[in-house]
Amino acid sequence: MSGAGRAKCAAGVVAVALAATACGGGSGGSGGSGDSGGSEIVRASWGDAQSPLEPGNTNEAEGGKVLGMIFRGLKQYDAKTGAAENLLAEKIETADSRNFTITVKDGWKFSNGEPVTSRSFVDAWNYAADVRNHQKNGAYFSDVVGYDDVHPATGEPRAKTMSGLVVKDDRTFTVALKEKYGTWPQTLGYQTFLPLPRAFFTDHAAWLAKPVGNGPYTVDSYTKGTGMKLRTWRGYPGEDKARNGGVDLKVYTDSNTAYTDLISGNLDLVDDIPGQQLKNVRSDLGDRYINQPALRNQALAFPLYDPQWGKEGMEKVRRGISMAINRDEITQQIFHGTRTPAKDWTSPALGAQGGFSKDVCGQACTYAPAEAKRLIEEGGGLPGGRMTLTSNVDAGSHREWMDAVCNSINSALGQGTVCTVNPVGTFADFRDQITERRLHGPFRSGWQGDYPYIQDFLQPLYATGAPANDTAFGDPRFDSLVDQAHAEADITRATRLFMDAEKVLAEQMPAIPLWYQNGSAGFSARLSNVALNQFGAPVYDQIEIG
Question: Rounded to the nearest 10 degrees, how much is the dihedral formed by the CA atoms of 56, 444, 503, 342?
């Protein structure tokens, strides 16, 4: 299904480009500052978008922030609960969890005046799926009938559009999926499924230079590597109108510089607190510092394709290794509370409604050195009597936590230095070693959810043959429960089935949950009502000034 159709790993984000410039106020863009909110501008740090700001081509956080400001889709995820609520969708109907009829609300338009119609979605989705357009998120449409015709594994496309998408009238279109997928509507709040105006197709270059959407902000100007100015759109028809006059996103080469500008009053919002400042941030900002769970986690994955790690009985060893890791100590000493010890394979940001359970990993995620040593010995011991942890070290504090994890394991086992680290210089090299199956010991696995639902944390990583299944894990019980969940029309029952599938991971431990990566931000005294959504991004339109 959609999660299994692509591979994605969460890497550290390194901000690029120039230091801050003075901010402007007042109106700008095609709609000017809105009469629904204030006229003052929020000055925020940014890391710039890695790719052109096309919905089908943006799969990283910095570009996603902009799409979240200038677009609205069929569904929107509640910033607090994660519930997938209808926005532009008036209704989404199905009788068989395979064929869906979508009715688009009347009265919505793009900021250039074009109406948002059913064709706005169908054309955008066909564009993203077409292999000739080289869109990174094309595989999200692999569930749709006809996807293989526009996106063949090899050779030229046999069609220009997916046969499973049919426009019925201006407000209605149908979607035919290859298989039953009862929770498919839950995914429709992800940015890949956004609509596009005709201007995107008729003058693509102009659109890329100044994207036009249907959200509460318009793009006033964008200079790659320097920043983007967004202004509140006066004619925005939605209820979530911006409460400020706009946002100036300013690109920084160094998050420490951004933090310094925040403290000195030259910046209003930083949502990437640098590691060097974590010891001081609470005393610097007090209650203007936000640190909360986000849809991100880190784990230690095992190369189950290696017979020494994948043979029967090694689940005891993997469980023992997990219990030898002092997560509480590591998250406090190295991450200063910006990581939370993991209790499952998802994220607490999902909430119970999205499938999170703090009990599923149980004792296996609890530090118990004596029990850890016993389990490892009962399971036959470490392969060859030792193990090596691997991660890229070009971002984050990966070397520090790897050393800490090995120290914890070595201390628990009391057999000398049996755990060592293998630091890889770049993320690209690290990923190559994983995909080419050259690693023969545990390796870092990072994941950020695309949408707040349990399926996105399980199926892409652990279903048999899934492209992001780096461990080569396969279990018929897990696969069967995932299939049953997809075929279930009732979201509550589907979630329970996914949670049952997660229990299989707790038995087999193909990867050890380490910690949840929090979203963090700091803001100036001139701002109020600052909050982060479940992805760890600021809810810009709700920020107030003064």
Answer: -100
Contact 85, 71 (CB under 8 A): no
- Name the strand (E) or helix (H) holding 515: strand 511-523
Tokens of 22: 């003075």
> Are the C-beta atoms of residues 106 and 182 closer than 8 Å to each other?
no
C-alpha to C-alpha distance for 303 and 473, rounded to whole angstroms: 9
As given in the structure block, the two tokens for residue 448 are: 């950020």
Q: Which two tokens stand for residue 384?
A: 């060859």
Q: Amino acid identity of 128? A: A
- Work out the angle at residue 123's Cα, subtended by the Cα atoms of residues 117 and 128, and round it to the nearest 5 degrees: 135
Place of tokens 């009238």: 169
- b/e 176-202 (16+ beta carbons within 10 angstroms → b): bbeebbbbbbbbbbbbbbbbbbbbbee
**Spatial CA neighbour of 269 closest among 527, 534, 12:** 527
- Say if residues 439 and 431 touch (Cβ distance below 8 Å): no
Tokens 């999200």 found at: 140
Strand partners, 105: none
Phi, psi of 249 (to 5 degrees): -90, 125
Integer Cα distance of 239 and 433 in angstroms? 48
Cβ-contact 24, 231 below 8 angstroms: no
Instruction: Print pLDDT tens along the chain (546 aa).
Output: 333 333 343 333 323 232 333 333 333 333 333 344 567 999 999 988 888 999 999 877 889 999 999 999 999 998 877 788 999 999 999 999 999 999 999 999 999 999 999 999 999 999 999 999 999 889 899 999 999 999 999 999 999 999 999 999 999 999 999 999 999 999 999 999 999 999 999 999 999 999 999 999 999 999 998 999 999 999 999 999 999 999 999 998 788 899 999 999 999 999 988 878 888 999 999 999 999 889 999 999 999 999 999 999 999 999 999 999 999 999 999 988 889 999 999 999 998 888 999 999 999 999 999 999 999 999 999 999 999 999 998 766 899 999 999 999 999 999 999 999 999 998 889 989 998 999 999 999 999 888 899 999 999 999 998 868 999 999 999 999 999 999 898 999 999 999 999 999 999 999 999 999 999 999 999 999 999 998 889 999 999 998
- CA–CA separation, 163 vs 161, rounded Å? 6
Closest listed residue to residue 236, CA positions, set 117, 121, 109: 109
Rounded to 5 degrees, φ, ψ at 30 are: -70, -20
CA distance 456 to 536: 17
Task: Specify whether the backbone of 341 is left (phi greater than 0), alpha (psi in -120 to 50) or beta.
Answer: beta
Burial code (b: 16+ CB inside 10 Å, e: under 16) for 360-373 equals bbeebbbbbbebbb
Other CB atoms closer than 10 Å to residue 253's CB: what's the count?
A: 15
Cα 444 to its chain centre, rounded Å, is: 17
Is residue 195 within 8 A of residue 120, CB to CB? The reply is yes
